[in-house]
Design goal:
The chain is of the alpha/beta class. It has 10 helices and 9 strands. The protein has one domain (about 35-350): Rossmann fold (3-Layer(aba) Sandwich), CATH 3.40.50. The longest helix is centred in the middle third of the chain and has 17 residues, at about 115-130. Keywords: Cytoplasm, Methyltransferase, rRNA processing, S-adenosyl-L-methionine, Transferase.
Length: about 350
């Protein structure tokens, strides 16, 4: 599944604007680079508000110290062009904020930006809360299906730690699945996070679920490029815009890595989501809300048309913001408001 490109990494390490203070008249100082304000843009329940506390992160994960640099704004950060730095940084964040003691991924696999991934989880919690009188459902009775968990297993980790939900992560890549299983087992989360391989690479839901399985949510971060060449070109454009395309330096094709199945598929994001919509009809009674991230706002019109044609009872588009990145996800259900209320009531009765 795709990562946010380099210039969309949430800028929590950048300084917020400060109110001006009266000063004596003096010659104007030379212009300094100004960072955009990011505080408050994340979901209110997102743990990653404000600047990162690097001394605290290093205290919990000493290996991070060798990757810390001073950014153009004079603040501590890391070099997001260094895949190893990004991986160690993520490991430190997961340990400090979520109590994840072991997290690692094979070389070349997707290393996700955690604040943005957490925002999706919190927004999904709000989606469920809207059907539950405004109360966010918590606990293992909430069952979530993660389409394409990847080697990083990030959504199940965050969702379980934040809300106690139970997850089934699915994946077509056997290597990614093995890496995710290692993370789950090393953190003692086998009862909370299950993993399953989708054996038919061209399918999403088809042949995946057992007849008696029910899920309150499905989530997905689909591959949004249509080819490997497009993925590479898109990353190079981002580096150039940031002034980082230095011919003397070998930069990674994608700073967050990623295998082909995580980054691109034939027809790109729009084709993948349309296939997901079509297959969701097959399991319409087994999933309360289907959702998927949509990286390109220009695709929304086609996606909404496909959802209308699918017979979905209700469709929602939820906007999110992480630093300079504007993102969104679509949610659809084949259950009426009354049926959703009955679903939640049955779940509550089972929990009691």
């Amino acid at each position: 599944m795709p990562a946010f490109p380099p210039d969309t990494v949430p800028s929590m390490h950048q300084p917020p604007k400060r109110p001006a203070r009266p000063r004596p008249k003096q010659p104007a100082p030379a212009a300094q680079p100004r960072a955009p304000v990011s505080k408050g843009e994340l979901h209110p329940r997102n743990r990653h508000q404000g600047r990162y506390d690097f001394p605290a992160l290093i205290a919990g994960s000493p290996e991070l110290a060798r990757f810390v640099v001073i950014n153009p704004y004079g603040k501590e950060s890391i070099d997001f062009a260094n895949p190893e730095a990004v991986k160690v940084f993520n490991r430190a964040l997961l340990k400090q904020f979520y109590g994840i003691e072991h997290w690692d991924i094979p070389p070349g696999y997707l290393c996700p930006p955690i604040p943005g991934r957490a925002d999706y989880i919190h927004a999904l919690a709000d989606l469920l809360a809207a059907d539950a009188g405004g109360e966010v459902p918590r606990g293992a009775q909430v069952q979530v299906l993660d389409i394409g968990s990847g080697a990083n297993c990030i959504y199940p980790l965050l969702g379980q730690r934040e809300y106690g939900w139970r997850f089934l992560g699915t994946e077509i890549d056997a290597t990614a699945l093995a890496a995710a299983r290692t993370i789950v087992q090393a953190n003692g989360l086998e009862r909370a996070i299950g993993l399953r391989q989708q054996m038919a690479a061209k399918h999403i839901f088809h042949g995946l679920l057992q007849a008696d399985e029910r899920f309150d949510l499905s989530l997905c971060n689909p591959p949004f490029h249509s080819s490997a060449e497009e993925a590479t070109q898109g990353s190079q454009r981002k580096w150039k815009n940031l002034g980082k395309l230095d011919p003397r330096r070998k930069l990674p094709l994608l700073n967050f890595g990623g295998q082909s199945s995580e980054l691109w598929c034939e027809g790109g994001e729009i084709a993948f989501i349309r296939r997901m919509i079509a297959e969701s009809r097959e399991v319409a009674q087994q999933v309360l809300w289907f959702t998927s991230l949509v990286s390109k706002g220009g695709n929304l019109q086609q996606i909404e048309r496909a959802l209308h044609n699918s017979g979905a009872v209700e469709v929602r588009t939820v906007s999110m913001s992480q630093g300079q990145k504007q993102s969104r996800f679509v949610a659809w259900t084949f259950h009426s408001a009354e049926q959703r209320a009955a679903w939640l009531q049955r779940r509550g009765a089972a929990q009691g």
